[in-house]
Design brief:
Length: 586
């Protein structure tokens, strides 16, 4: 009987194992279908069905089962697909539904540039809006024609930019938590949320000037495209004059108000003079799958290395982990077929230790082949640390750049334990400062001075790196540093970057640096991307492995939790180069 029971358990285990594999295989198959290209079609950019990110990722089958079919298209793939569509006789024109557009500042700016290039090729771009948003209308303004729904109930979401700063001192005081912040830089506001009840004047100033600079660039672009004055456009928003669809039409922001049936007729007329009732559409995500392929015939390569996310220590797979990225950069350096590198940075910063590891490998790489930086949404603090010595730097006008400053935090929970939890702690240590990072007592004067010395030394190192890499006077760097965050357009004027441009501009420049004539197409090059995104199967296994849910999901504190995700007790006393927020444009 014992033998029979053991055999039964064994057989059940085997059956369950193969049954599990079958289920996982079926789920994985959801994201592996190959799209079909019609003989002729319209390129569709429907932002309710895709988002633009730094890198293309495979469809998440678990999300698909839950009804989320939103594709994630990398900005480089999106630009290549739009460029290919501009030259493809099978693509008649572009139709855009920009209402749900959201994402990083840089990705939106670069996508609009690609849409403009498509239009300049001679093919039409048509947009249709139901709920205009800041990002949606910015993209739509690149169109030949903007149509808007004539139905009642449309809602205008174009209201300008705002930055939400959250401060936790009052609630931390009630909980008895004392966060001891050691920093260099009067604008270095990371950690300020824990020690203040409102923004410092310096923090308020830099945030105001930052959003003003980005908004000025966007409204200037919109006003030029719609042939209205920038001041008039801002006045319409400030005076809440864009309430109904007719307001957009009367003020020249859209060209016509249409019902869905009228829109279908317009699209049909543009496609084949009304002969086709249902115009065939191919989505940007599907077109990218069909048309964006590596040029395996090309012997020489340009590598794009995406430093996208928080800079952390170790080998974490979905962040800019110091050891993992050092290994990736070293591998690229040793590949003799890679002739130039585009270092695509979209990072708010993080660990100084990890930043140093990555920068050291970038310096070794630069000694062997050209390294051109391309900035995404952020190249701030640690993100700027790892890239400021690149041979040439492209940024977007809205990229959050600089934040040259460092900080360290040590929380003290002694009052929380004694007054709130009624827990008494006795520390037993071998040395006088053995419990300084325990969080059970405040730092003394010697310990604070000790940590301040570390912060000052690292700040000096940071400003020296920037001065050397950008060929600037160190005192000047210090004057524009102090933890201050600049928009990319301001960073250009200060000499922190070399040029406003997209990732495509950076790739072309890298090709020129490696020997081809500037402006030449990239047909002679194979573009390889690092690190490789997780496969569908890896995503499934990661999902089954479990992940911690956000405590503050859906609340104003979600942004704080996202910005400082992964904070552990072991982080106390570490020195960080990071901005205190992450920005998404809607």
């Amino acid at each position: 009987m014992t033998l029979a029971a053991m055999l039964g358990f064994f057989l059940i285990g085997v059956v369950f194992f193969f049954f599990s594999l079958a289920i996982i295989g079926s789920i994985a198959a959801l994201g592996s279908s190959q799209p079909v290209m019609p003989r002729t079609a319209v390129l569709s950019l429907d932002f309710s069905k895709f988002t633009v990110s730094e890198q293309t990722t495979e469809a998440d089958p678990i999300s698909q089962l839950q009804g989320n079919n939103t594709a994630v298209v990398g900005i480089w793939s999106a630009i290549q697909a739009i460029d290919a569509a501009a030259a493809d006789p099978a693509i008649k024109y572009m139709f855009m539904r920009p209402d749900m557009a959201s994402g990083g500042i840089a990705e939106i700016e670069e996508l609009r540039s690609a849409i403009e290039n498509f239009r300049n090729s001679g093919k039409a771009v048509v947009s249709y809006m139901e709920t205009p948003t800041n990002a949606g209308y910015y993209l739509a303004s690149a169109s030949d024609k903007i149509f808007m729904s004539s139905h009642e109930g449309t809602m205008n979401m174009i209201s300008g930019f705002s930055a939400r700063l959250i401060f936790l001192k009052d609630i931390l005081d009630k909980l008895g938590v004392n966060v001891q912040l050691i920093r260099h830089g009067k604008y270095k506001s990371a950690g300020e949320m824990y020690i203040r009840s409102e923004a410092s004047p310096e923090n308020l100033l830099q945030n105001q000037e930052m959003v003003d600079a980005i908004w000025d660039n966007w409204t200037s672009t919109i006003a030029s495209a719609r042939e209205i004055s920038q001041s008039d456009f801002n006045a319409l928003i400030d005076n809440l004059e864009l309430n109904f669809s007719e307001d957009f039409l009367d003020n020249g922001l859209v060209d016509e108000l249409l019902t869905k049936d009228q829109l279908r007729q317009k699209l049909s007329d543009l496609y084949d003079a009304g002969e086709t009732k249902d115009v065939p559409m191919v989505s940007l995500a599907d077109y990218a799958k069909l048309k964006v392929m590596p040029n395996f015939k090309a012997k020489n390569k340009i590598a794009i290395i995406y430093a996208n996310g928080n800079i952390v220590d170790g080998n974490e797979p979905e962040q800019v982990a110091g050891d993992r990225f050092a290994s990736i950069i070293s591998k690229v350096r040793q590949d003799s077929t890679v002739k130039a590198v585009v270092f695509r940075v979209s990072s708010p910063g993080g660990s100084v230790f990890a930043s140093e590891k990555i920068k050291s490998e970038i310096d070794l790489l630069r000694a062997d082949k050209p390294v051109i930086a391309s900035y995404g949404a952020y190249a701030a603090s640690g993100g700027y640390w790892i890239s400021s010595t690149c041979d040439y730097i492209f940024t977007n006008a809205g990229t959050l750049t600089g934040s040259i400053g460092v900080f360290s935090m040590v929380p003290d929970f002694s009052k929380t334990l004694k007054d709130i939890a009624h827990v008494n702690i006795t520390n037993v240590t071998t040395n006088r400062h053995g419990d300084m990072y325990s969080g059970t007592r405040p730092l003394d004067k010697e310990e604070t001075a000790y940590m301040q010395a570390s912060v000052e030394r690292i700040y000096d190192r940071f400003t020296s790196i920037v001065a050397e890499g950008r060929d600037l006077d160190k005192d000047f760097v210090d004057s524009i540093a102090q933890g201050r965050v600049w928009a990319g357009s301001d960073a250009l004027e200060l000499g922190l970057v070399d040029r406003i441009g997209t990732i495509k501009d950076a790739v072309i420049y890298a090709a020129a640096s490696a020997g081809s004539s500037y402006g030449q197409d990239l047909s002679d090059w194979q573009i390889v991307e690092y690190p490789k995104p997780l496969t569908t199967m890896e995503k499934i296994m990661e999902t089954f492995g479990g992940s911690s849910a956000k405590v503050f999901a859906g609340t104003p504190l979600e942004d704080v939790e996202e910005a400082f995700t992964g904070w552990k007790n072991t982080e106390s006393g570490k020195v960080y180069a990071r901005i205190p927020y992450e920005i998404e444009i809607r």
